[in-house]
Write a structure and sequence with these properties.
Number of strands: 5
Structural class: alpha+beta
Number of helices: 4
Shape: elongated
Radius of gyration: 25 Å
């Protein structure tokens, strides 16, 4: 009888200790559209962050109205990288618009992005929303040369 009680007590102690050491994986948030705000593996631009910055610098066309009015600022854009890697649902995050065509240009450049490597949850591709600031800045307050004329 003593051995049975001892065995039960040891089993409870071992099981309790093992359970207290396991970390339950938090469940990522998902909105009504089925889009996640985080993932085990987040979506990535082909070539990584450096390639994303090069893409933005190469393809961003500073709006003429913004140049002539010396408008600068950050446009905060939200978008979804679908389970197939395509960029969709591009929207402005901030209500305070930069103006001068910068908001529209930020949306255009995000919509034109190539497919990303999709996010993963439990090994499966999932749609994930990302936020990205797009910076519009004139060098030393001087007008930049128009890259679209190349």
């Amino acid at each position: 009888m003593k051995n049975l009680i001892y065995s039960v007590v040891m089993l409870i102690l071992i099981t309790g200790t093992a359970m207290s050491q396991t970390n339950a994986k938090p469940i990522p948030n998902r909105d009504s559209r089925g889009v996640y705000s985080s993932a085990d593996v987040m979506p990535s631009f082909p070539g990584g962050d450096d390639a994303l910055m090069k893409y933005l610098k190469k393809n961003l066309k500073y709006p003429v109205a913004a140049k002539t009015s010396n408008i600068q600022g950050k446009v905060f854009v939200a978008f979804v990288v679908n389970a197939d890697g395509k960029v969709t649902d591009v929207t402005l995050l901030k209500k305070d618009k930069v103006g001068g065509g910068c908001d529209e240009e930020a949306i255009r450049i995000i919509q034109a992005m190539p497919a990303w490597t999709p996010g993963k949850l439990d090994g499966k591709n999932i749609p994930v929303q990302l936020n990205l600031p797009v910076q519009f800045k004139l060098d030393n307050g001087e007008l930049l040369p128009d890259k679209s004329k190349k």
